[in-house]
Amino acid sequence: MRFAVVQFPGSNCDRDALFAFQVAGLKAELVPHTETDLSRFDGVFLPGGFTYGDYLRPGALAKFAPVMGEVERLARRGHPVIGVCNGFQILTEAGLLPGALLANLNLHFTCKEVHVRVERADLPFTRAYRQGQVLRLPIAHAEGRYYADPETLERLEGEGRVVFRYSGPKGEVSEAYNPNGSLNGIAGIVNERGNVLGMMPHPERAVHEVLGGTDGLGLFLSLAMEVV
Ligand SMILES: NC(=O)CC[C@H](N)C(=O)O
């Protein structure tokens, strides 16, 4: 499997993502936001950062980048598409995932380690984990509060599309462990088809002991298990 890691103006987690793919033994390449042909890739990763300075809203300008037509095409064809942090914001702005990422309830940029519970371990992104497994991952965002209207939220929960939920170290879900005020403690979701993932925590920053943890590696190893 070969992955494209898209570099938008203002991306800052692109090289971390590339490193994570390499640690998992996957082929990945950086591609510019101006790329209009991703046909040589099997999947695409939209990294975190501050694309276009987060002007208007995070992701609101990046969704118009030339590469996004190809991202949509890959998503429609069922290829894995992953958006982390700013990448998640871009996927919601582009309409590839429902809902929105609003300003954190505390109105602060929050950079710390949190725990998330794996709610679905049967997806191309999570099959190296167990359902209910608790991961320790870093977050670093000012606008990570997941919001969706009540009907959408009910659908997401009913269809099992919440993939990661903020929790305590033992998997306890409570507002005390919700770092940004996300509805239902949602940290990551998938689309209906299960091939487009958006998440606020950074798995690519937790793939080696030297980074302080390896709990994010499972996401990349899961993709490596995928047979194309
Ligand atoms: N690390 C990131 O991707 C930051 C996301 C976004 N720019 C925010 O602060 O909400």
From TrEMBL:
Subcellular location: Cytoplasm
Pfam families recorded: GATase_5
GO biological process: 'de novo' IMP biosynthetic process
EC code(s) of this entry: 6.3.5.3, 3.5.1.2
Metabolic or biological pathway, per its Swiss-Prot or TrEMBL entry: Purine metabolism; IMP biosynthesis via de novo pathway; 5-amino-1-(5-phospho-D-ribosyl)imidazole from N(2)-formyl-N(1)-(5-phospho-D-ribosyl)glycinamide: step 1/2
PROSITE patterns: GATASE_TYPE_1 (PS51273)
Major subcellular location class: cytoplasm
Protein name: Phosphoribosylformylglycinamidine synthase subunit PurQ
Classification lineage: Bacteria, Thermotogati, Deinococcota, Deinococci, Thermales
Gene this chain is encoded by: purQ
